[in-house]
Amino acid sequence: MPPDSTTAQNFATLPDFSAxxxxxxxxxxxxxxxxxxxxxxxxxxxxxxxxLAIKPLYARPVLPPVSPLLAPSPGWTxxxxxxxxxxxxxxxxxxxxxxxxxxxxxxxxxxxxxxYGFGLHAERPEDFAAALAGVEADLIAxxxxxxxxxxxxxxxxxxxxxxxxxxxSSLRIxxxxxxxxxxxxxxxxxLDDMTQICALARSLSEAPSPSRAFGVDGRIxxxxxxxxxxxxxxxxxxxxxxxxxxxxxxxSLEDSRHQICFILAADADQFLTMxxxxxxxxxxxxxxxxxxxxxxxxxxxxxxxxxxxxxxDPHVNIMRVGMAVFAAGVSGADIITALPYSIALGxxxxxxxxxxxxxxxxLRAESHLSVVADPAAGSGAIEALTDELCRxxxxxxxxxxxxxxxxxxxxxxxxxxxxxxxxxxRAQGIATRRLPLxxxxxxxxxxxxxVTCLAPAPDQPVTTGDFVARRLSEPFEKLRARSxxxxxAQMGLATLGPIADHAARTAFAAQxxxxxxxxxxxxxxxTDLENAEAAARWLCLCGTDKxxxxxxxxxxxxxxxxxxxxxxxxxxxxxxxxxxxAGAEFFIFSGCDAVETLxxxxxxMAKDSDA
Length: 611
Prior knowledge:
Layout: H1 5-12, H2 25-35, E1 46-47, E2 53-54, E3 77-82, H3 87-99, E4 104-108, H4 125-131, E5 141-145, H5 151-163, E6 172-177, H6 179-184, H7 194-206, E7 212-217, H8 219-223, H9 228-248, H10 253-257, E8 260-266, H11 270-290, E9 300-304, H12 316-329, E10 335-337, E11 346-348, H13 350-366, H14 380-403, H15 406-412, H16 414-431, E12 453-456, H17 474-484, E13 490-495, H18 499-514, E14 519-525, H19 529-532, E15 538-542, H20 545-561, E16 565-569, H21 576-582, E17 584-588, H22 594-610
Parallel strand pairs: 3-4, 3-10, 4-5, 5-6, 6-7, 7-8, 8-9, 9-10, 13-14, 13-15, 15-16, 16-17
Antiparallel strand pairs: 1-2, 11-12
Helix pairs in contact: 3-4, 4-5, 9-11, 9-14, 11-12, 11-14, 12-13, 17-22, 20-21
């Protein structure tokens, strides 16, 4: 969109900054080091679950004359999930969403990769016709999220729309048939549908229709815990597999590439999500060029990630989804679907759906994020992360191809094992609270939050096979559920010394126990034995290391004599044996495994309560 006259006038009046000279990276590092009081800048460096370095400072990149991102014209299409199981109820839902501003529908069927326990029950064309009654299908875009290979659902959807008088040539539907996704979810027979899906692709190409037959879906890997490079390598290998199959079925390479679309998960890690979306475009462009094609923009769907959604304090999900939509929107996504904030609790109601819809409307229409194409171009951090992801993903893609391709990588279990290792590394960071989950493991509130859902979420895993979808917050949510069933899940805080000395550890302890659903019953000086008797059965001693060294043993002995069971906030260090002998049963500190510690503590509380 060209700038209007007001914008052009504002640019014309900008001051000339050339007199300030060029700031070097060394100067920035010196300033940052001074702010750290001489500390090493590298201590601010973090790493992704795959080990990708996230630095605090990057140099300005040297950009080519034309950006190689191959992003389409700025702006994205706003899609809304259609996952109501009953076709008649789904029809009301679809019309409400479209009237409310949605421009596309993501038709999520039961047992599909993105169903998460629900989804439209539509096995017959008549079911699709009922669910989409009144929808002007030729005026909107659609994406089909179907179980198995997706072939049967694609045929039923086409037949259902034909019952309503729509011809495939007038429709823009990404059928997203994905036999590889079926394999990943435990249905190896879905590869048998490849020939017929290629036939569907040929018919779409001959119509001609803007619809696409195949979908390369990175959400399955992402929900199972994959890292960004693993997700990209898998998508590149899967896209190549489908491209080869289409070409071998008789389509030209030019027509074949137009029968493939891509689906990426976007999460609340803004920088990595932006780099991932940009990297996929660059990687696919490189692959197209290697096939002798002139690279063209791919069709890229973004969907906010399932694994980041939480059940406790679910309104925080609104911010997570907002960040995910922002990152995908400014990084070249063509169509974006936002998960409603309550989806981890159950089937979202109209309010949660409206919030998901309005999140996109506000970001695109009110924040004007669609005005500039690829605004991250020129950012040292984003360009560097994009480049590093491209290199890491391409190396993994080459390893997959060297093994024999994506089908062999799935059959051998190598890809599943690599994803599992990354997921375990991330889970360890979450368990130790080094990767905090706001509202769950950090800043957790024990106050009940009223959220209405149309139906509760199922308890069983939402996927099967080697790539099971798991939300990051599940370990802490299980602790919270156990605490709610245990009346004795309360903790008193016993303080040592003045407030200035114990305040930091008192606040840490309160948040630590809240993440496991353990309420703080009281906060009292440990020397006030009369008041301490009125506190909870369990106490957490909070003070400084110096206070523990001089007063800890005595304080613990007095509290133990009063019948309390005791936790100590802080690493025990050299005094551990003495503190344990005096009565300390648990130690909590920054970096300890909170999930394991809280689980053992709850077990002990339960036994203590039964005794």
